[in-house]
Design goal:
Among the domains are: 103 residues; 117 residues, no CATH class. It is mostly helical. 23% of the residues are buried. Strands 1-2-4 form a three-stranded parallel beta sheet. It has a two-stranded parallel sheet with strand order 3-5. The longest helix is centred in the first third of the chain and has 84 residues. It is built from ten helices and five strands. Helix 4 packs parallel to helix 6 and helix 6 packs antiparallel against helix 8.
Length: 371
């Protein structure tokens, strides 16, 4: 196209030169202008295409540069996150080792160390040490003689909104029960040094005894060790009441008769409400139910060797295994003086007999202490 226009222009100019005609010369000039304008237009179109291609290439390069910058930032961020995670992990390992080291150095002062609850709290959400921290807290709680401190530590290892692990709570109760038995041995030995009236429980640590009675038994202000022993013993009893209540709350929401066996053995459950609880999955061997409401409960445990009940309303259960019912009727019948912690009264002989007959007790005679 360009060559044809130039050839046409050259031919017209040549003709105008040969003829010398004014009209031909004007036409030649006009055609030359048109050819020049066309060349200019073609050049501009070419330049526009080049500019567009250059602009497009610049845009692509700019986008690629931006993407590479973002990828660089992401890689750097991931590296920093990894480094931070490794740093935190190493710090957590160091903190845990320091905690264990301080405990190993002074295990007897574990409960008195006010930093222990705060240091254990830092591991409450740890994937690596959360379970170990809970078990360590259970040991600490078993030695505490401070109900408020006990509750604080419990909230530390089970922060509000977290999933509470039943086995950990059972282990806390089991540790508390062990501590209670050890303290009770000391109380029994100490009680030999005091004089109790007939038919009164010879336990100098019993909370039901007031200061006046204790003085009558021979306890005086100078017996500092005994006063401390009483405080520790009754603190543990209160803490067992507290953890028993928490276990009850859990079971009322998460109880099922299907699933793995629940290790409910060698515990003390006291002063709480287990009404409507299904015991079908539980091994309650060696467990002591002390002043526990069992109204409507399903007492069909998988095992129950050496289980004990005192002041607990087992005869109000919905169902009881036949052999367990026989054992309870012969050994765990309602006795006088067992209801000092509950707003409940011992049933009359008639009420008790009617209840256990309804549960399937068929023996002609039954045990019942007094009328």
């Amino acid at each position: 196209m360009r060559d044809e226009l130039e050839n046409l222009r050259d031919a017209v100019i040549e003709r105008a030169r040969q003829t010398g005609d004014i009209e031909t010369i004007e036409k030649a000039i006009s055609i030359s202008k048109l050819v020049a304008e066309e060349k200019k237009t073609q050049s501009e179109i070419k330049n526009v295409g080049s500019t567009y291609r250059l602009s497009r290439l610049q845009s692509v390069m700019s986008g690629a540069t931006t993407i590479l910058s973002v990828l660089g930032l992401i890689i750097a961020g991931l590296y920093n996150v990894r480094q931070l995670s490794e740093t935190r992990s190493q710090a957590e390992v160091t903190e845990w080792r320091d905690l264990l080291s301080s405990i190993a150095k002074s295990p007897d002062n574990l409960v008195q160390d006010p930093t222990i609850p705060l240091r254990l709290r830092s591991f409450a959400s740890s994937h690596r040490y959360a379970e170990d921290a809970r078990l360590l807290a259970a040991t600490v709680m078993s030695k505490m003689a401070d109900a408020e401190g006990f509750e604080l530590l419990f909230r530390t290892i089970f922060p509000l909104g977290t999933i509470i692990d039943l086995n950990t709570m059972l282990e806390i109760d089991r540790q508390q029960t062990f501590s209670k038995h050890k303290l009770q041995e000391h109380c029994t030995d100490a009680s030999k040094n005091y004089k109790f009236p007939p038919r009164m429980w010879e336990n100098i640590c019993w909370a039901a005894y007031n200061d006046t009675q204790l003085k009558e038994f021979g306890l005086n202000a100078g017996d500092e060790n005994i006063w401390i022993l009483r405080k520790r013993y009754n603190a543990v009893l209160n803490q067992i009441d507290s953890i028993s209540s928490k276990i009850s709350d859990y079971l009322k929401i998460n109880n099922s008769k299907d699933g793995d066996s629940i290790p409910f053995n060698n515990l003390e459950i006291s002063a709480t409400d287990f009404s409507e609880i299904d015991f079908s999955r539980m091994d309650i061997s060696g467990t002591f139910f002390d002043q526990v409401a069992l109204d409507g409960a399903v007492l069909n445990p998988r095992k129950y060797d050496n289980v004990k009940f005192a002041g607990s309303t087992w005869w109000r259960a919905r169902t009881i295994k036949t052999d367990l019912l026989q054992y309870l009727a012969e050994n765990m019948y309602p006795r006088r003086g067992q209801y000092y912690r509950q707003d409940d009264e011992r049933p009359t002989r008639t009420e008790y007999e009617r209840a256990i007959r309804a549960l399937g007790f068929t023996e002609k005679t039954l045990s019942f202490e007094g009328e």
